Amino acid sequence: MHLGHASTFSDNLVQVEALAQEAPKAESFQTRRRAESLIEIEWEKNVAYENNNIFAKIIRGEMPSYPVYEDEHTLAFMDVMPQVPGHTLVIPKFPAEDMLDVDAEFLAATICVTQNIAAAVKKAFEAPGIMIAQLNGAAAGQTVFHLHFHILPRHDGIEFKIHARDMEDGAVLEAHAQRIRAAL
To answer: Which residues are catalytic?
Structure first.
C-alpha cells in the first residue's frame, strides 16, 4: 500500500490503521515506523501550541469549569469573566492555537456546536441577538491561545463589561449553565 498525502489528521490516522492491517508480517517494523512518522509529522504542525493554556487544562480536567455541553470533539462552558450574562465559550478538544491552525474536520465540528449552543443561549437569555466572536492572534485580541468561540447574548441598552477583568460568582455561572443546558 502506498501512503499518499492526507489532508487531515484523521485521514492520516485512517491511512496508518490501513497500513497496519494490510501490511505483510515481513514489513511490520517498516509499517510501524511509517505510522509513527506520520503521527509525529501531524503533531509537529502544532508545535506552537502551548499545552498548559487554561483551556487545555480544562479539557484535561485539571481546572474547573461550568460546562454547558460536551462531545468527543468539543466542549462548551461558561466564560468565568463574562462580558454579559450568558457569555459562553466553545472550544475544540484538539491542540489548535487559532482558526488557521486546526484541521477542517475539527473546525467544522466546533462551528456546528457553536451554532447549537448559540441557539440555546439566545433562548435561555431571551436575547433578541447573539454575537459570536473568534479572535486569531494577539494583534486581534486573542489572550488564550487555544481556538475558541465566544457566544454573547445581546440586548439593546446592555453594554459589555471589560473582558478578563472581573471573575463572576460561581453560583451565578452554574445557574447560567443550567439555563443553557435546559434550552438545548
So the answer is: 148
